[in-house]
Write a structure and sequence with these properties.
alpha+beta, Rossmann fold, Tumour Suppressor Smad4, 2 domains, 6-stranded mixed beta sheet, 5 helices, 18 strands
Length: 270
């Protein structure tokens, strides 16, 4: 077994003690353990400790998924929906890996094709209006279809396509439902729709959803897991399917999604 440690380099000093603890514990058992400084360092890793909040996990999740690396998250952020352990349970997380008595939860990801580009998302895809200077747009008009059948023409600030994992993030704030992680479904959620009949739609993750701008002149911005990846060209077609590779998260055997949900939502509301 080879173990990796990943954290936000902006918080290097805050994490040094935790990194040393993880390295020393695994080294004592003859287990190779390295700090991940760049993506190529992930090659050959079996288990990755991610120290940070949801944003830190999201930055590395897709790279882990394509390599089959299992993620164990320790929450050093604010809410930490994706992290299995809080900081005070770091020792328990280490023992869980050393003992090998853990469960693995597979979480579906989005595969997004736009033009010649392919992206992967653990949480969500957001296609939204531009708020940038001369490209500012009040609303956007987007046509959505699932498996070739029209869902709606959305006049709104944009739309969110979310996995069950991402259903507790931006989609929830926009009025979408919470999907349990094991559900084989995605959710389409309009953002501030200018129509009373436009509502979130839950659909099978075996489906293909396509998003096309109705007005090619309206500037559109695309964000993947909370980060803007670029503008959508007038000729670009967006197609979303389920990724062939899921993200794999290590969990303790007594994990309960709804208990965790209530705790985290209470933190969020404070």
């Amino acid at each position: 077994m080879k173990v990796g440690i990943y954290f936000n380099q902006n918080y290097l000093k805050a994490n040094l003690g935790n990194v040393e603890k993880i390295e020393n514990r695994f080294s004592a058992y003859g287990v190779s353990c390295i700090v991940i400084n760049e993506i190529s360092d992930l090659n050959g890793i079996d288990v990755l400790f991610v120290l940070g909040g949801d944003g830190t996990i999201l930055t590395i999740a897709a790279e882990c998924a394509v390599r089959g690396i299992k993620i164990i998250g320790v929450n050093y952020g604010h809410i930490g929906f994706l992290a299995e352990f809080e900081p005070e349970r770091l020792d328990a997380a280490i023992e869980l890996i050393l003992g090998g008595k853990y469960s693995v939860q597979k979480r579906s990801m989005l595969k997004i094709c736009c033009g010649k580009n392919i992206y992967y998302a653990l949480n969500d895809l957001v296609v939204q209006r531009s708020t940038n200077g001369e490209n500012f747009a009040n609303t956007v008009n987007l046509h959505a279809e699932i498996d070739g059948t029209t869902v709606d023409n959305f006049s709104s600030d944009g739309i969110i396509i979310s996995t069950p994992t991402g259903s507790t993030a931006y989609s929830l704030a926009a009025g979408g439902s919470v999907l349990v992680p094991e559900l084989n479904a995605f959710i389409l959620t309009p953002i501030c729709a200018h129509s009373l009949h436009s509502r979130p739609v839950v659909f099978s993750d075996c489906s293909t959803i396509k998003i096309n701008p109705v007005n090619a002149k309206t500037p559109l911005v695309m964000a993947i897991d909370g980060k803007i990846v670029g503008e959508v060209g007038s000729d670009d077609k967006i197609s979303v399917t389920k990724s062939e590779r899921p993200a794999e998260f290590i969990t303790s055997e007594d994990t309960n999604f709804f208990d965790k949900l209530l705790i985290k939502l209470n933190i969020w509301s404070k």
